[in-house]
Amino acid sequence: MTPTVASVDNLSGALNDLVDRVPGAEFAVVLSPDGLLLGVSRDVGDELAERLSSLVAGLEAFGLAAARVCLGGGLRQVVVQMSRAFLFTATTRNGAILTVLVGGDAEVGDMAYEVALFVGRADRHLPVHLEAAPTVRSGDVDVHR
Fold it and tell me: What's the whole-model pTM score?
């Protein structure tokens, strides 16, 4: 089967659709496993995207550590509840990280469901196939060629 061809425009459109489907959703972004920005919904500026990149990397590390320590199985979502908002992060099968912010009055169950759906269909939206970086062996030189 030939993989679906996706573009950054497709990803931005999919993120906008996700935000539009859930009342109270404010924005959505997708990051690579190493924190590089892959796509954003409308109204996400460069400064916010940069800050989210760092924030989400920390949340992802925290969630993975909690899953290991608590023997809870693989990490699916991290949800941060604040007084006026919720931040959802979820990792796709190939390692991309979806992050969505919703207002505190939003239906949290609907957002959790939409995040899970997006993650399940992520291969349709991601402009690249992400894989873990190869391990550099001792003696390898000029690995950037």
Answer: 0.76
Q: What does the DSSP 8-state code read for residue 123?
A: G
Count Cβ atoms below 10 Å from residue 106 Cβ, excluding itself: 17
Distance between CA atoms of residues 124 and 4, nearest Å: 6
Asked whether 86 and 111 are in contact (CB, 8 A), the reply is yes
Tens-digit pLDDT profile for residues 40-80: 999 899 899 989 988 998 998 999 999 999 998 888 889 99
Of 24, 28, 52, whose CA–CA distance to 109 is shortest? 24
- Total Cβ atoms within 10 A of residue 26: 16
Structural contact between residues 49 and 68, judged by C-beta atoms closer than 8 angstroms: no
Q: Which residue has the tokens 């989210």?
A: 52
User: What is the DSSP track for 12-68?
Assistant: HHHHHHHHHHSTTEEEEEEE-TTS-EEEE-TT--HHHHHHHHHHHHHHHHHHHHHHH
**How far apart are the C-alpha atoms of 72 and 138, rounded to whole Å?**
35
